[in-house]
Amino acid sequence: MRTQVLDAGSPDAVRTAAEILAQGGLVGFPTETVYGLGANALDREAVLSIFAAKGRPADNPLIVHIWNRDQLEGLCSIPEGAEKLMDAFWPGPLTLLFPRTERIPDEVTAGLPTVAVRMPSMPCTRELLKACGLPVAAPSANRSGRPSPTTAAHVLEDMDGRIPLILDGGPCQVGLESTVLDLTRGEPTVLRPGGVTPEMIEDALGRKVSLAGSILRPLQPDEKALSPGMRYRHYAPKGDVTLVEGPEDAVVRTLRERCLADRGEGRRSCVLCFTEHVRELRDCDPHDIGSRGDGAQVAHRLFDILRKLDQEGMETVYSEVLPPEGVGLAVMNRLGRAAAFRKIRV
Ligand code: TXA
Ligand code: MG
Question: Can you tell me the distance from the alpha carbon of 268 to that of 171, in angstroms, rounded to the nearest whole number?
Fold first, then answer.
């Protein structure tokens, strides 16, 4: 199959994409978070082909994308508190879990009693969802185990020859996947942190939100995953990533020592550092993750940098860390997983 890449800003391209979706095909499309790999959520065969194209385990459920709340009619019920969150954050990078009806195929939810729903904000995404008039099931458009794609080129890298069309909407604004929030059992629980932070959700709900335990550490062998996605190793470059935490000067010194020591032993090594430290680390092949005080910038750049590490054949990588607050929590969740939560405290 030849994979076409078309400009997401072109009405013709959006129409073509909508037709492919309506006929049961797959389309790679941009959202404000990461690129998605979409199919008609009500078409079992189409949904199954998503899993085949990604190499995704069948027990990891998909997010259903809508542009209008009326589309939820008949698909799910709306738990308490959800209206407030939809008012505050939709369209935007917040996915909510809702109790579902029989109309959603088991293939979408991996047989779970809930369905994950999100309303993306990017204008061309909304155009596409509107044009096809369907709820669109879409995971991130990467091959399973690779970082989520934040450009059309990333999608092409992973999906060339596997899908007919990619819409190119430029680099994704947020750069990390949506926040996933479970409102269906007791205390609202963040299963995956993202651009909508726990603090923002607490403000909108007027109540406390808890965080799934394994956001900043590995899932324990006897621990039940609240979200199937937590069971899988994600976002992992081929090389070994190690996080370095501590006072600024000591961190920079350690990044340098470790990187140069590894090189001395013949390993290909580099550092991920804040813009402010690039000069000081210039002999360590510094990859600039963004400014120290700007978590949103780090989020925006992270996945592109993780992909580059593999292209460059890096064997060891040493990285600075952000405080796990605000969007820093989402960054540290992804970076932590990329590092298999290996960390040096200095
Ligand atoms: O930003 C995003 O959310 C992107 C864009 C394309 O919308 N999508 C995305 O999808 O990241 P995916 O499939 O890569 O991640 C969905 C996550 C997985 O960790 C999955 O386990 C979890 O959401 N999930 C989906 N349905 C669920 C459910 N019913 N209960 C618990 N977790 C669920
Ligand atoms: Mg994914």
Answer: 28
CB of 3 within 8 A of CB of 159?
yes
The residue type found at 286 is P
**Is-cis flag, bond preceding 228, omega within 30?**
no
The identity of residue 61, as a single letter, is P
Rounded to the nearest angstrom, the distance between the alpha carbon of 179 and the centre of ligand 1 is 9
CA of 136, nearest ligand number: 1
155: domain CATH number? Answer: 3.90.870.10
CATH code at position 258: 3.40.50.11030
Pocket lining: 178 vs ligand 1, CB cutoff 6 Å: yes
Amino acid at 339: A
Q: Return the number of other C-beta atoms located less than 10 Å from residue 293's C-beta.
A: 10
Amino acid symbol at 248: E
Residue 24's domain comprises: 4-216
Cα 285 to Cα 271: distance, rounded to the nearest angstrom: 6
Q: What is the pLDDT of residues 59-82, one digit of tens each?
A: 999 999 999 999 999 999 999 899
- CA gap 7, 17 in Å, rounded: 11
Picking from 171, 200, 216, the residue at the C-terminal end of a domain is 216
Ligand 2 centroid to residue 131 C-alpha, Å: 25
Q: How many domains does the chain have?
A: 2
179: its two tokens: 């926040």
Q: To test the ligand 1 pocket, which listed residue (35, 64, 90, 95) has its Cβ within 8 A of the most ligand atoms?
A: 95
The pLDDT of residue 196 is above 70: yes
Q: Report yes or no: 209 and 81 within 8 Å, Cβ to Cβ.
A: no
Q: Are residues 195 and 277 in the same domain?
A: no
pLDDT in tens, 120-168: 999 999 999 999 999 999 999 999 988 999 999 999 999 999 999 999 9
Pair of tokens at residue 180? 């996933």
Q: How confident is the model at residue 236 (pLDDT cuts 50, 70, 90)?
A: confident
Widest pairwise Cα distance in the chain: 63
